[in-house]
Each structure stands twice: as structure tokens, then as C-alpha cells.
Amino acid sequence: MSDQRTPPATGRPAPHDVDDPYLWLEEVDGDDALAWVRARNAETTATLGTSRGFAGTRDEIREVLDSDAKIPDVSKAGPYLYNFWKDAEHPRGIWRRTTPEEYRTESPAWETVLDVDALGAAEGEAWVWHGASILRPGCRRALVDLSRGGADADVTRELDLETLEIVAPEDGGFVRPESKGGAGWIDEDTVYVYTDFGPGTLTTAGYPRIVKEWRRGTPLEEATVVYEGTAEDMYVHAFRSHTPGYERDFVARSLAFYSSELYVRDGDDLVLVDVPRSAEVGVKRDHMVIELRDDWEVDGHTYPAGALLGTPFDAYLEGQRDLAVLFEPTPTTSLAGTTWTRHHLVLTLLDDVTNRLEVLTPPADPASGGWARRPLPAGPEVGTVSVRAVDGDESDDLWLVTTSYLSPTTLSLAHLGDGSEPDPAPEPLKSTPEFFPTDGLVAEQHFATSADGTRVPYFLVRAEGAPLDGTTPTLLYGYGGFEISLTPAYSGGMGRAWLARGGAYAVANIRGGGEYGPRWHQLALKENRYRAYEDFEAVARDLVARGVTAPARLGIQGGSNGGLLTGNMLVRTPELFGAVVIQVPLLDMRRYTRLLAGASWAAEYGDPDDPAQWEHVRTFSPYHLVDPDRMYPPVLLTTSTRDDRVHPGHARKMAARLLAAGKDVTYYENIEGGHGGAADNEQAAFMSALAYRFLWERLAP
Length: 701
Description:
Layout: H1 31-46, H2 54-66, E1 75-77, E2 80-87, E3 90-98, H3 100-103, E4 111-115, H4 116-123, E5 127-134, E6 141-148, E7 154-160, E8 165-166, E9 175-179, E10 182-187, E11 190-194, E12 210-215, E13 224-228, E14 235-241, E15 248-256, E16 259-266, E17 269-272, E18 280-284, E19 287-291, E20 296-298, E21 301-303, E22 308-312, H5 313-317, E23 324-327, E24 333-340, E25 345-351, E26 354-361, E27 372-376, E28 383-389, E29 397-404, E30 410-415, E31 427-431, E32 441-449, E33 455-463, E34 474-477, H6 492-497, E35 504-508, H7 518-522, H8 530-545, E36 554-559, H9 561-572, E37 579-583, H10 602-605, H11 611-617, H12 622-625, E38 635-640, H13 649-660, E39 665-670, H14 681-699
Parallel strand pairs: 34-35, 34-36, 36-37, 37-38, 38-39
Antiparallel strand pairs: 1-2, 2-3, 3-4, 5-6, 6-7, 7-8, 7-9, 10-11, 11-12, 12-13, 14-15, 15-16, 16-17, 18-19, 19-22, 20-21, 22-23, 24-25, 25-26, 26-27, 28-29, 29-30, 30-31, 32-33, 33-35
Helix pairs in contact: 2-14
Pfam family, one: Peptidase_S9_N
Region (Disordered): 1-20
Protein name: S9 family peptidase
């Protein structure tokens, strides 16, 4: 197995490395690098970690994370509802199950299926749960993924759901060694496996490029190759649809972000599903839906980017192009998601970043007419509603979740009828407690005007009677990348640590995200990345112009791509902010494609090894834009040693460069946690408290 945590600094030419004095901090487990990390951690623990209010904030957040009153999120498999749960007694979590009838009670009785803490203790490993897949329809076996310390790389174990025992390899159990990748059920004795099979079997981004069929009782080395991609691909995997009567096998090849191919496996042959590579395809029973990222011309008709098309799957494979438009975007609307039930397709839409739902029913005979359509009542006005099928093969029931900044999350059960009568009102089942007082608080949506005149929405939560004199400490959060939308959600931790203390909270829906569909995302790709940053700056200025806050009282926070965002705010417009939090970030955009999964993000940012593309990438590489002579607001940088997605070297090197320039820098690196930054609730509460206390101490008057 290759060591994916070692930066591939020698794998490709690195013409710019010679002028990087902090390259040694990229050695993840290097003695000198870890000594530097421990010294910074000790400083932060001794200062911020012992400051007035830190322990109280940490404990308040921990109480929320450990609360027994949280909604147990469940998935149905066979006769059971399965849930993964963390609390004070189970810091790494337990996978457990109950019956649908029991789940309706106030205090359901749960059966523990797998205790991750106990397994880790028995094996001497810091296991972190990565999920499980249950073999349908019998639901007697599961493949469980576990990570050491929270890294993306994980192992797969087989679990017997009748005996509740891990199936040992000597008893024929499937065991996938540690690697980025996975395994998925074909049948009880066969799985697809896509993993590190040895030298040359991974992409340059560190993901599998080969998928194999592996039969029980045979060595992994003897698994049969199903598909082999190239080193330049991003990821290759395979899966089986187990819908009764419509069992099919697929191979998915990701060439890059926003570019993929889907194949149907027919014996030893693979049949390409002939759609644009930028489109996303879903197949359920005899239907296929195609979500477009780019305009697509078919038989003289152009379907717009952001549209959702439906067509009979088998007929499409045979060459028919009878496409029904299931959704077409407008300047304010986009498709946020799709969910299949037994007889219906539910669309989750965004209209100016507010959710609404539509239920579509395909015709029994495609020749008899189009898809029927009806609305499904959604959630709060400034809030979010999401749906999942309870069992898309067997019923038309939906889990419906509503949430907002000021309303605790509610889980309801909705049943979709045949459309001949109004759907019955959803039945509320569970609700999150009120973890912080909301009296006197108001959630609003506003729009700022960006530098090029674009209207940029943002949400603001504040005390309704607070004076608009610029004195309110305000936290502005953003992301702006990878077509990810930021919608309102209840956060007991944020509410306790920030709102309950008198702060205001804002979320910017900047370009690069998916709030207005693929066009909103594409407007900030590569050489146009600056638009995301101009949008964020416009929101910051609008908050000041409204009197909500002032630059000295305005803090910003972002992680991963959002860390790149806040890193750019630090070096672009430091005068706009009083404090900056940068979490698990990308910051060195000259070397990001050579570090861990960075090569897979070139479609988002551009390739810095191409001189022409480096000319625009360099304009948003914060590590290279630090000016020792410029004044910067205080900055907190956090990351994780076990983050094998975004290399911890980004945060380490940025902190070192700023410290060398004499700037106000606080740094903390969690040893565990992976890209999420924390492996359990204790670590998560500590890391969150660092951010909130850092901001409050520097922004509160």
C-alpha cells in the first residue's frame, strides 16, 4: 500500500520549490515539522485555551454535541431503522438499530450493532466511523468503512447483521486494506472493490483508477479487473442497483471534477451512457434523469445548463432521444436535489436560496403523456427543507427535514399519494431541543451588489432591536466553490457560542457555490475566481453600510475552499475585517496540485504548472501574496495532521510566513480528525471553541 500522506514533492517537476523556505513543513510526520506544530499548539493552549470564557464555550458546545435529545438520523434496511450515534459515553460512536414502531416513541429502545469505541480499544486503533452499506434485499450483511484518526483513507470490514460479529478473513470475510477507495455489494459472495492495488494503480490525485470484482474466499490479488482508468483520471468505482426487477451494474469514471462517464455493465462488455461528460445521470427502474451543467443540443433542440431531463432508460441506450424537461432553471431558481420514491420523483428547488418541493410522477406508458407535477408544502420562509426516501424500492414515504437559523430542526414522515387527492400533511416525529434563546432574534435575507453589478444574496441573524451603529460583533461565513450551496440550518453550538452572547451571524451565498445552479458556480471558475472574492467583499461592505457592524467588529470564517476564501480576504482587503479564521485550508496554490488530493481540483482552480494558467492562479494564492509590510488583522489558522485531502502544509506554511513577518497569528493543529478537523465530539467542541473565542475576544467591544 502506498503512503498517501507523504507529499509527492518528488513525483513531478517542482520548478518553484527553490524559493519556498517553509517546504519542510509539508513533511506531515517529519520530526522538525511536528516539533514546530507542538510548539504552536502549546502556545495556543496556554493562551487562547486558558482564556476567560474558553472552557465555558467549549463545554456548552460539547453539551449540544453529546445531547441525547438530538434527532437520530435513520436509514431503513429490511425491518430496521439504522442510526450512527455519538455522545459522552460513546465518543467515537455506535452503529445501532431499532424498529419503525419503536422509533416513533419518545425514548426508542436501540440495539447496538457495532461499538466503534470498543472495537478501537480491542484492536488498539483510533477508529473513526466512515459509514456502512447493507446488502439488499436480504439485509443480512454489511460492509463497514473505518478510518484511522479520521483520514479519507479507510479500511472496509464485513459485518454479519444477524450475529453482529465482524466476519474474519479466515472465515471468508471481506477485508479491504487501508486506502482511499471502497467496496460495494454485488451479491452475498461478490463485491466490487476499488482501492490501492499496488504501485501504479492510483490516479495522480491519490484515488483508485481500477475497479475489480472480488469473490468471497479468494485473495484480493486474484480479483478480476472490471475497468481500468488512467493515471490522469480522478476516480473510478462501480456499483450495483439492487432495485428488485431492475438489477443493473454500473461503472463510473470521473475524469475530473464536473467531467465523468457512466457505463452499464453487460457481462464482460461496458456500454457507455451517451450523455455530455459534464452531466450527472441517475437511473431508477426504467427511468433515467439527466442533470445538465452545460447547454446540450439534441436533434436540433438546445436544453439549457441547469435543466433536468427524463427519459426511458432502455430506450435511450438503444438510441431513442425522447427527452422530457422535468425542470428548467430561471434567473432565480435552481435544482438542489432529486429523490426517488416507489412511484414518484421529488425535486428540491432553490428560489433565491429558499427551498420548495415538487412531486413528479412519470406516465405509466411513456406514449400516453408527460410527467404529472404537483407542489409539496415546504418549510420555514428563511429556512431549509430536505427530503430522503424512506425506502425508494418499496414505498412512497419520505423523511422530511425542516430547519432554519432560529427554529430547531424537525424530522417528519410524509406519505405521497397518487396525486388524485391532496397529499396528507407530514407527521412530525422528532425535533431538536432549543439549545439557545431566540427571543428577540430575527433571520433576514439581504442582497449586496458586487463589483460587476451582480446581485449577491446573504442571510443575516441578529438581535432585532440592536442599534445599527456598527457596534455589533458580527461573524461572516462563506464557501463559494464546487457548486455547493449554503442554506439556513439550526446550530445549537453556534447559537450558544455566538448569538446568545450578542453577536450577529451572516452567511454569504457568493458565486462559485450552487445557489443559482451551475451558472453561478461557473462564473467563478479558474481565471474568474476573483468574482467569488469580490462577492464576499461586497457582502462585508453591505453589512457595514447597513450599520450592522464595522470593520473592527467584523470577523470571517471559512474552511477548506472556504479557507482559501478567508485566506484571500486576509491578503486582499485586510482593512475590511477585524479578525480572520482560516480552517483546513488551501493556501499555497503554486503547489496544491502536488499535495494529496490537490490534482483533482484543477478543474476548479486551474493548473499552476501551466505557465499561462499560473498567471491567474497566482492572483489568488494567499501564501504568495503575504506582504510583510502590510497591516493584517489577527488570524487563527487550524488544520489536522490526519487530513489526507487538503494537506496540513498549507496552514503550517502560511502561519510560519505570517509569524516571520511579525503578524498576530494563532495556530492549532489537531492530531486527529481528517478533513473534518475532529475525530470525536470532545475534539470538535475544542476546535469550535477556539474559533468562537478567538473571534469574540478580538471583535467584542
